Every structure is written in C-alpha cells, then in structure tokens.
Amino acid sequence: MNGEPAVLLQGDKKAGRALLFEPGRIGGVRLPNRVVMPSMTTRAADPDGFVTEGSLAYYRARAVGGVGLVTVEMASPEKAGRHRFNELGIYDDRFLPGLKRLAAAIHDAGAKAAIQLGHGGGHTRRDICGEDPVAPSAIPHPVFEGHLETIIPQEMSPARITECVSAFAAAFARAADAGFDAAEIHAAHGYLVSQFLCPAENRRDDDYGGSLENRARFALEIVRACKERRPEMALIFRLNGDDYFPAGMPAEEALQVSVWAAAAGADAIHVTGGHYRSQPSAAVMIPPMDMGYGPFLKFAKMIREAVPVPVIAVGRLGDPEVAARALEEGCADFVALGRPLLADPDWVAKVGSGKPIRTCLGCNTCVDEMRAGHPLHCLVNPTTGREQGYQDDGGPRNERIAVIGAGPAGLTYAGLAGTRNQVTLFERTPSAGGSFNRVSAAPLFQNVRPEAYSFAAFIRSLEEICDQSGVERRYGVNPLKDLAQLAGYDRIVVASGATYRWGLGGLVSGLLASGLLRKTPLRQLAESERFRHWFYYKARRRQESLLSTVRKLGVTVEVIGDAKSPGKSKEAIRNAFEAALGVSA
Ligand SMILES: Cc1cc2nc3c(=O)[nH]c(=O)nc-3n(C[C@H](O)[C@H](O)[C@H](O)COP(=O)(O)O)c2cc1C
Ligand code: SF4
C-alpha cells in the first residue's frame, strides 16, 4: 500500500468522459449510463428490517443524482444471515410493501434499481440475527458489530445448504415482485457464499468442499436456482478478485468462478476484493486512501477478458478521470462508485455537465463508524444519512460575505454559501488547505494512513466548487492585519482554525516536518486514542483575540469549524454545512 494510483492507469493520456455516459445493458435491463452505485449498508432500516422514510430519502438522493443503477444494500435471504442491527429485510413477504416503495422511489428519480442478497453466514452473531449462525465449517469467526466477539457457527448439513439455496431463490423472486430490475448475489468479502469459496473457511470434505469445483457449487446452485425461478430478472454476481490473504481465494480461482457464474446464468460479474481476514487488515475491502486509485481494476480486467457478460469494477474510482480510464482501458463495462456517492450524490449529473464534484477522501470514517454501530455518515458530506434534515432552505441569502480562512471548513462554507451570496474567501497563506496540507505527515487520519494525494485532490475539488459558485478567492491576504479589507461585508465568517496552547505549535510543526511522528516510538503515542483526543480537543483553543477584533466591526459574525470549537475535521465540516445551509440536523 503506497497511495499511488493503480498501475493500469498511470499513463498521461486524458480519458474521454463520454464513455461514462453511454447507455449500457445488464441482462434485459437497459441502463442510461455506465455508473452503478454498489451495495452499502446504511442501518437506515428500522430494527425489524423495514424500509424507513430515511432509507427512501437516502436512495432517492443518489438516484436523482444521475447514477444509472442503484444497488440497495445487503439484505439477507434468511433471518439467520442478518449481519447487522437495522439490516434491511427481504427474507419474508412482510417486507414487500416497503421494498416496493423503495424500488419505486429509485425508479421515479430516473435510475434502475437492484438489491443485494447477502447472507452473513459465520460472520454474524445470535444477538444480531436471533438464530444460530451457520457456515460451511464450524471454525472461529471474529465478528465486529458494535463490539468484537468471536463465534463458532454451526456447520451446514447438505439439507441446510439446499434450504439456503431455496431461500436465495425466494428472495430473488421477492426482489422481482417488489419491482427491482436486478438482484446481486453477494459472494464477496467473507460472507456466506464467499466463505464457501474460501479455502481457509471451507474445511468440508463433501461435495461442497475441497476442490474449487466443490467450493463453488453452493454459489452456482444459487445462481441457477434464482434464474430458474425468475429468468427475466437480471442477476449480478459479486465476488472478490482476490481475498488478500494467503489461505484465501486467489485471483486465478476468482477468474474460474466468474466464468462458471456467467455460464450458470449471471448477467454481470461485479469484481471487488478483500475479506474480513485480509492482510494487512479487513479495510482492504473498502480500500482506504493508502491503496491508491483502482486497486481492484487488475482483477476486473482479467475477468472481463474471460467472461461473455458485462463486468462491473469498483474500488476508489471516484476521480472522474480514473473512472473514465477504467472503461477506456477495457477494465470494465461499468464502474461502481460507493463512497464517491456518499461524498457527492450528484457525482454523475455533475460530471456529465462539467461541474466539479466533492471528492471522497478514502478516510473510511463512513464504514468504520457504521461498523461500530452508528448510522451511515460521511466526513466531507454531513447531509449523507441525514437527507431529510438537510433541506437546504436556510442560511444567508443575497449577502456580501467575507470568509476568513481557506481550510476545509472555510472552503466548504464558501462553496455552499457562494451559490446565493457574494462571497470572498481570504487566506493569509499563499494556498488553501489549512491543516489538510500537513496531515499526510501524521501517522493516522481517522483510522487510516493519510496520503497527500488524496487531501490535495479534496482541496482542489473544494476550490473548484468555490469557483463554480462564483466565490472570489484571495490568498496571501490577511484581512485581520488590514481591517479595511473587511469593510462593506454584511457577514464575516471566521474559519481560521484553532491555535495551540502552551506554545505547542512550533513543536507540532517540527515533529510533522521531521517525519518522526510516523516512526516508533512516537508513532505509537500519536496513534493512541487518548493522545489523539487530547491533541484535538485539549491541546488547542479558539483564537479569542482574533474573534474580539472581528466582533468590533459591528457586522454579523459567524464562527465555524475549529475556530468555534477545536475538534476533528468531521465536526468542522459539518459545522460549515450547517452555517451555510442554516440547518441543525
Ligand atoms: C459504509 C459502507 C458499507 C458497505 N456495505 C457493503 C455491503 O453491504 N455489501 C457489499 O458488497 N459491499 C459493501 N460495501 C463496499 C462497497 O460496496 C464498495 O465495494 C467499496 O466501498 C469500495 O468502493 P468505493 O471505493 O467506490 O467506495 C460497503 C462500503 C461502505 C463504505
Ligand atoms: S467518510 Fe471518508 S471515505 Fe467515507 S465517503 Fe466520506 S470521505 Fe469518503
């Protein structure tokens, strides 16, 4: 892992974005463009698994944003396979009314709708699903859902396997009855079907274990049973291009399973990667920024050359250039954008009309918090998961606004407020970015290794959004040294960050510049939760003298981000959104 872009895409040729907007086809379903939203667990369902107004608003926002196919999050075909609290239900007809509303909401917004059928297998617990978890073999499975607990699931008998295959087919038919255009069989990431495929987790010596042919039998029986039940319904088969650990399923086997799945009736192969047992960590399946752009493209390309059906690629493809190149270089027929659509639900519409997007950092805050038990949110876009709360109808209008500080909070505020106000963004240093310019020297950002390329792309995207909104950017100007610069504004927004207590600023800068914080023993200290909490919340304070200077100007003053209350970037950016949009969700 080194944060470099994927090898396949290192040429300097500019890709034609038009390819992203060509219609495509999966089975009998015609898609308006080549962008797919992959399955992402939201926890927006109610505790029993029923669709909520929150679920509808979340998916509607992505469909309105122009994505061709929305894949609704993992829903288990059996109660025993529910892998998270508040997981969406599809294992019984009583879920049909809600699922119908969900499919209709996606269709009404102009997208096609799919739903992922995924069974947790050994990767769940009795307290989550209410039944004894089942798996190909009774081996220990560490399960992190709110807390970590290792369980030993029941080994499935051949009769139990047949029952489960039937449950998949019934759920597939239920998805069709609900109005979905397609359903995706989740055979990746270490859940039940992937557990059968994975040599380390499948220790059976019957027809379902041992050789690859036997390990793939369960998956292929599911594909055939689903297609026999509803031949007209498109079926997408999602598998790992590689499990990323020595005893996992390797790429050559993934290639063979893909060929078999297509022959068994799959209408598309969706190639992801990573497993709960991956090395260096389970984070591989949702590649953090230090895996670079497009880490799974090599697997998608290899599989695409071998199967007669379309291939969907996924994994850090949110840079429009990277997404277009993935298609142009023949890695895939469709690109799936997960986190990029959390960061900016309008990605497709904006890229299609040449507008800038809010880019995903690859910080994995969304998934880390979700796995810890929280609803789905995004660090750079607090409206995600709160679509109903952020109605975007408040905030200042038709004002002249001076924003002081072009760090993440100031840039975010200026870009949002600039659409309906006349905004000037002042930054005393020659460039924007604030703390994000130095963060790649720290050992961690949230829970991932920070990489400069990702923060630079994010800051650039915010600057482009500001330009699009008509914001005047004035860098290398400190209006607090020359207050005349602030004359004539209706509102001054202070986003100048916090200051270090006890003269720590010089020490922190020195340590970051020296690289010592990324080396032992300081690294251990800097990575510890206690130290980080102290660093963010206690070691810094508001710049009171600056605030009192600005308040004396006699205009409306708003203080946002760290300048308001030192903390983490997530809070600062959320605060910027709320100030600009006039909401508190
Ligand atoms: C919060 C979150 C939840 C996810 N849940 C699922 C899931 O339920 N099923 C699945 O197959 N993948 C899941 N994924 C993985 C995504 O589908 C996707 O493969 C991954 O995020 C990489 O794509 P991206 O770089 O475009 O985000 C999840 C990802 C995130 C961020
Ligand atoms: S939380 Fe981070 S990784 Fe997740 S979508 Fe937002 S920016 Fe991307």
Bound molecules: flavin mononucleotide, iron/sulfur cluster
Q: What is the tally of beta strands?
A: 21
Strand residue percentage: 15-25%
Report the principal-axis shape. globular
Question: What is the chains' assembly state?
Answer: single chain
The CATH topology of the largest domain, please? TIM Barrel
Please describe what this structure looks like.
- Helices cover 34% and strands 15% of the residues.
- With 585 residues, it is of the alpha/beta class.
- It has 2 domains: 7-357, TIM Barrel (Alpha-Beta Barrel); 400-581, Rossmann fold, CATH 3.40.50.
- It has an 8-stranded parallel beta barrel, surrounded by 7 helices.
- The chain is globular, with a radius of gyration of 25 Å.
- The model has no long low-confidence stretch (mean pLDDT 93).
- Keywords: Flavoprotein, FMN, Iron, Iron-sulfur, Metal-binding, Oxidoreductase.
